């Protein structure tokens, strides 16, 4: 890739990343917090400086990059063409091969599996069930008793381990599934909001194998999903500008499912793009399956 082209893409990436992180950086300086947006920077701890670092992806030679700052970045090596750099996929695979194979397996199986649209975001409710404290300094929209009643009269079917592990002790046995880290590739499904947000996590873990534009698209999806995740939660966020999605009502359930379907389609599209980006690194076996996926 010519230097003029990759410089232009790098600049566009940095501007987009800076826009995504502006609120977080301002709050860090002011010492304030946000109950919805901060999650993307605390649960997913990729620093803004790394989020704005553009990578071309595996197999792309960057002309004129050997004498630039990028030459000191990890996982780059000098290409055969003199002053060019390329991602050192061989070294990265040797160091992270097991993790890359896990990510490819998880994304491929998740995208190929039918989506479940019957969970209604009840994981957040189960995290507040019969608890004297909550995860956010925001009042519960229905109060403690009303929140507990929704949990007790609902069918809890959370398939996401990293949500399930934050259920309160009383809520854990109410879940119909028993997600673990080991069975994650067998349970994770594209209708899950947290699985959709996690595409960003997996793209970030793949580092320079993933093009920068794809990383930011994954971040943008996680940001959009997080909004619904909290609008459908038991927390009253109207003072923060969020309209509740009352999943305890038929209309709220319908709205949740409609938006959930859109996120499932977007997340599967991103899963396919991540797998395509790492295809030379062992993901090719999943691509035919993804092509037959109903969400493809």
Detailed description of the structure:
- Strands 1-2 form a two-stranded antiparallel sheet.
- The chain has helices at 3-30, 39-42, 48-51, 89-112, 122-126, 143-152, 161-164, 184-187, 193-205, 212-231, 250-277, 287-291, and strands spanning 76-78, 85-87.
- The protein contains 12 helices and 2 strands, in the order αααββααααααααα.
- Helices cover 50% and strands 2% of the residues.
- The protein has one domain.
- The model is unreliable at 281-296 (pLDDT under 50).
- The protein has 296 residues and is mainly alpha-helical.
- This is 3-methyladenine DNA glycosylase.
Strand order across the largest sheet = 1-2
**Overall helicity:** 40-55%
Radius of gyration using CA atoms only: 21 Å
Domain count: the total is 1
Mean pLDDT across all amino acids = 92
Tell me the fraction of residues in β-strands, as a range.
Answer: under 5%
What is the CA–CA distance across the termini? 30 Å
Shape: elongated
Q: How many E-type strands?
A: 2
Per DSSP, the total helix count is 12
Q: What kind of sheet is the major sheet?
A: 2 strands, antiparallel
Structural class of the helices, strands and pairings?
A: mainly alpha
Q: Spell out the helices and strands N to C.
A: HHHEEHHHHHHHHH
Report the oligomer.
single chain
Low-confidence stretches: 281-296
Protein name: 3-methyladenine DNA glycosylase
